Amino acid sequence: MLNLASQLSDDQRIADQLSSIPLFHDLEDKTLEQFLNQSFVRVFKKGEMVFLQDDPADYFYLIRSGWVKLFRETLEGTEAVIDVLTQNHLFGETAVFEDRLYTCSAQAVETVQAVSFPVAVLKAAIEQDNRMALNMLSSMSRYRRQQNRDIEGLSVKNAPQRIGCFLLRLCPTSASERIRIHLPYDKTLIASRLGMKPETFSRALQRLKDNAHISIDGPTVQIHDLDALIDYTCNTCSESFPCKDLSS
Amino acid sequence: MLNLASQLSDDQRIADQLSSIPLFHDLEDKTLEQFLNQSFVRVFKKGEMVFLQDDPADYFYLIRSGWVKLFRETLEGTEAVIDVLTQNHLFGETAVFEDRLYTCSAQAVETVQAVSFPVAVLKAAIEQDNRMALNMLSSMSRYRRQQNRDIEGLSVKNAPQRIGCFLLRLCPTSASERIRIHLPYDKTLIASRLGMKPETFSRALQRLKDNAHISIDGPTVQIHDLDALIDYTCNTCSESFPCKDLSS
DNA sequence: CGAGGGTTTGAAGTGCATCAAATAGTGTGG
DNA sequence: CCACACTATTTGATGCACTTCAAACCCTCG
Fold this sequence. Notes:
The structure is a homodimer. Helix content of chain A is about 40%, strand content about 25%. In chain A, strands 1, 2, 3, 4, 5, 6 and 7 form a 7-stranded antiparallel sheet that branches. Chain A has a 3-stranded antiparallel sheet with strand order 8-10-9. By secondary structure, chain A is α+β, with helices and mostly antiparallel strands. Chain A contains 9 helices and 10 strands. At the A-B interface, helix 5 of A face helix 5 of B. Chain A binds a DNA duplex through helix 8.
């Protein structure tokens, strides 16, 4: 684990990265400093747990690279994937309000480099620096909106449409004619993220291929006709297409 | 419409009600005053719209009685119920962060008495009174937790279990032997809140009756054996029972 | 090469949706 | 207070979507 502050003398990059995250925008210098002083870069190997549901929540994390899965396990052992996050996304930060216990488990699904911060620092910062509280609010608000969409999607969309929606979110906004997408992690995981079984995912992807002019080669997907995909995917939505990614 | 501040000289009740809402806890006097000065009691008759999705969001509301449905309409015309709220719940307040447009429509499903506040006052209060920002944060955090549960519920629970879960949330925490619940609004509405069709709801309620010792008489439900209901409903959950209502 | 995880395919089952029709409730005007 | 219209709710029959269980396939990596 590397203390960020100690690196800073020679390397400003991490502080820069921090201030590029909306949560850390426009903070008072002393607030930002408190975070930097107590932050550590940590690496979690693929499969490693970052924290467990109901554990005391001492740290929250900012992802620098890799993928993290947030999930909850039922008493019967099945797991529900809440979200899968990557670069520049925060997780565990809501523990500030939750009796200091994590409300879900977090696991690295692709080797993760993350910066950890004590939840206590965040709590203090929110109370002392109003800017921090405001940033936290917009961050939660964006997340909430995203979740509203997910809930809507689960009840309104069928399996192929949910996959289509997932793909659209991965598309670069500047849409070129032919779009190539590399699936960021296991299909099995995408499946549970979208609330379906792996078998269903596989078959649904086939159906999507038949209906929306895409082709699949292992983990890469080609979209031949973006409009066709949007048409097939989004007509059940309450929002029209450029529904950009809001989590973070 | 009655201005709250003008009533206050003779009637303290409304200010009291306000400060019993977590969002208004421990505010600076001048902050609370700003809200009271600009608040109005409004009544919406059954079926009346409170606001429409994508309208400019000038006001948010605190429900004093009745039931409000929040929903979004898809491009195809079907509607997805986001939530159904009653007494002491807030709605429309998230507009502060959303480009000042409502992200869903709100309709009174049982005649509603609500207090309206300008979103602008909230925005100012959040920026000026750190306590206000903190309250808003915990409120959103509670809501977020509820959403996580809903997502989990949609993917791991079947129809009767979701109804059971819904009933449990309406139970008084001090559980007496025999519990009576008044279903607060028409059953079609509960059905869509739970992401199912009315027919499914009807049948699922029967199944629940057979499996969990409850009896139904019109709009009232009797729970004869709370433990049996919990047992049937919650075994697929990741949280054990007293998962009290967290929205608001 | 062979083991093991991820992915696909097949066959059968379950649960919810849909369509259609009967029944119960609710509010209205006579 | 009753008859009627209209709406909610229930019930039945059928179909589709997703799941489940099982087996095959594929790909990677030791």
